[in-house]
Amino acid sequence: MPGALLTPRPMPERRTPVVLGGAVVALALPIFLLAGWDVQGWALGALLWAASQCVGLLLARVGIGEPTLRGSGIAAFGMMGRGIALVLVLLAVAVVDPSLALAGALVYAAAYSTELVASLALYFSGSPRR
């Protein structure tokens, strides 16, 4: 079992997980409207998720072509910076309006979790490299 988890596989296409994450963000809007929750919380989460996707796209462009040590370092630093920026924005919003920050964080977390699960499923369903 550990060998199956540690066997490298080709990187799957990112389009499907991103579309599924976007669908979660889109489906969260009617939930917010029907529940009578503040739509600004949904908008904050949607904006954070979209900004995170834009930064991820920019980082993916750095790694085009043959993987290099420089490209992987930039991508790793960018991914870490993306998470730190997200937390800083949510903390700043939480100081002003905690319920708004919570709603935004929940929308973002739902979309990110969906994207992560889809990415892992696609990765582990691929055939291992030989």
Write the layout of secondary structure elements.
Elements: H1 2-6, H2 15-35, H3 39-62, H4 69-96, H5 98-125
Helix pairs in contact: 2-3, 2-5, 3-4, 3-5, 4-5
For the CA atoms, what is the radius of gyration? 17 Å
Largest sheet: none
Number of domains: 1
> Cα distance, first to last residue?
17 Å
Poorly predicted segments: none
Any idea what the shape is? globular
Number of helices: 5
Record field, number of beta strands: 0
Output the structural class. Answer: mainly alpha
| Helix residue percentage | over 70%
Listing every helix as H and every strand as E from the N terminus to the C terminus, the arrangement reads: HHHHH
| Mean pLDDT over all positions | 86
Write down the oligomeric state. Answer: single chain
What portion of the residues fall into strands of 2 or more residues? under 5%
